[in-house]
Each structure stands twice: as structure tokens, then as C-alpha cells.
Amino acid sequence: MVSQLYDLKAMLPGELDQLVGELDEPAYRTRQILDWLYAKGVRDVREMTNISKTLREKLAERTRITCLNLVKRQESATGEAVKFLFELPSGQRIEAVLIVDGTRRTACLSSQVGCPLDCKFCATGRMGMIANLEAGQIVDQLLQVNQFARERDERVTNVVMMGMGEPLLNYSAVMRALKLMRLKEGIGLGGRKVTVSTAGYIPGIRRLMAEDLNVGLAISLNATTDEMREQLMPINRKYKIADLLAVAREFFACRGYGVTFEYVLMAGLTDADADAQRLAELTRDIPCKINLIPYNETTDLRFRRPARQRLAQFYQVLRGCGVEFTVRHSRGRDIDAACGQLYHQQKK
Ligand code: SAH
Predict the structure, then answer these.
(1) 124 Cα–ligand 1 center, Å
(2) Cα–Cα distance between 340 and 294 in angstroms, integer?
(3) Looking at the predicted structure, is the pLDDT value of residue 2 above 70?
């Protein structure tokens, strides 16, 4: 029987402790291993030079270290976004983005190769579902983006699970990755520095809510009637707008902070004055934030960014209804790194 190799990059400290114990090594080895993985970014246990050679050999027999192959890195002309294209051992490709905003450095990470949810306006949706990422592959995106930031004397300050895929449909790997991101010995991104974004998979939201993990939650609302939402997001056949509003209330009751509703503005589809009014009504009594995202155009010309004036008018109506909101100035459109533009032709 071939014994399975543990991915060191996906092991929680408790699990490492256990492994170190099984190998008859002192407990402080865990800390040393974490330091090599996170602070020093080694790719091979043989590089862990303050650890005895015998332990390194024992570790090499039992473990591996996930390292995504960086195929390409592109910087936007404005310097506000850097896109990383990675290749998995299977040859499949995924993307992550470093977003620069004031002093914030946000890593936007992928959770799946492609996505099963088929949102009509999203480039990743058009890829279909190809594979779930492993926890180590999610963490490694962050480590590599952070490594790049460190070379510029910066560091990643925030994470958004808003790259390719639906994070709540790859729940256990995403959850493990979120726990690993928080480690003080590692990148140390605690609490709400990390946000999970979902197209509205309610069983996943409930499960996340019950975790002892203070991550932020964003729900992609994107329409104000079930009729329109269903056309844009097939998941709405199962989980309706009213259900999402109810779960957003539950989330607040349970966690003590509200969700963020993301709302993509698409010309002629979701950008009417009536939408702004309905958006205000739907969210009126819910403690939440609203984040508007003017559509980033893809190759699918059925979906367009509203004209600047239309956007201004939409904002005006919302303000008139007393709604506070933020507008996401999507960074990296020139390198197709903005929301909904992550797509990669997979090798056949
Ligand atoms: N599956 C998750 C996370 C990935 S998408 C989710 O649906 O939330 C991250 C955000 O980008 C979502 O709010 C989605 O609605 C939005 N989005 C998708 N395509 C877009 C596009 N072309 N322009 C602007 N936003 C887009």
C-alpha cells in the first residue's frame, strides 16, 4: 500500500504536533517547521537546516510541500493590481490577484478551478466546474502573493476569497486554509481581515456562521427581483432573495456583525432606478454593508458596464433612500484581473 503523503502546508499546528510526536521529536519542532514554511518559504524539507538530518529524512518520507508553479505575473499599468497565474500539478490553471489600495494590500484568492454555479455574467462561470483546490493550494497562493509583497517591503493585510470558484462549495479546504492564514507563526491574518464571498449557497453560510472563526461574509446579491436573479444566477432557483435576506439577519444575530451585500451593476439589467429603490427596501432593516460593483466587461457582450451617468443616477437614488454604500473601483481591468474577469483556458 502506498502511504499518503501529508501536505505540510495544509497541516494545522495540532496536527504537526502529532506528527512530530509520532516521529519521537521534541514539541518545539512544530514551531521550527512553521517558521520554515511561512517566514522562510522553503519548498523542500531538506532546506530546513536547523532541523536534524534524520528528522528531515523522516519528514521527507511522510510529507510533501505544496508549491504552485507560477506561470506568469502581470502588473496593471497603474500598479493597483498584480495578477498571478499558477499552474497545478494537473496542468490546470488558476489566478490570484494582489490589490493595492492605500495602505491595504489585499490578496484575492481562488477556491476552485472554474466554478459550478454558472452565473451568466461571470467569466469564471463560463469555465464550468473543473476541480476543487486543496487547502495547501489556497494557502500557497497567499504565501506567494505575500512573498511578492515582501520583496517590495510590503505585506498582505487582507484576504478576500473572491477569485475563481465558490468557496462555500469547497468548504473543508477553504475552512482549513482560513485557519492556516490566521496562524501567528504564519501570515497572522486574524478576524475580519479575511472575507469569504458567496453566490448565496445558504447551507454553507449556515455552516460558516456556526464556526468559531470571525471571518467576514459577502453575499453576491446582484439583482433585486427573483426573476432577474434567476436569469443571472441559476443558484437563485434554489436559494431566493428572501432566503438570503433571512440568513443575513441570522448571521448578524449569531456573529454580532453584518454581512456585505455585493451588487453588480449591469447596464439594462440591474441598474434601473427601480432597482436602487428595491435594493434600499430589501436591505432596510438588515444590519449590513452594501458594496456596488460596476460591471467589468468580459468577452460576453451581452453584459455591459452602465454609462457613468447611469451609475451616478443609481447612486443618487440609493442615497435618496438613505442607504449608505461603497463602490468597488475594480482594479486591474487592463490585465483582466478585476472581479469576474478571471478565466483561464485550460489545456485540453
Ligand atoms: N463565487 C463567489 C466569489 C467569486 S465572485 C461569489 O459569487 O461571491 C466575486 C464577485 O465578483 C461576486 O460578487 C460576483 O458577483 C462579482 N462578479 C462576477 N463577475 C463580475 C464582473 N464581470 N464584473 C463585476 N463583478 C463581477
Answers:
(1) 9
(2) 11
(3) no
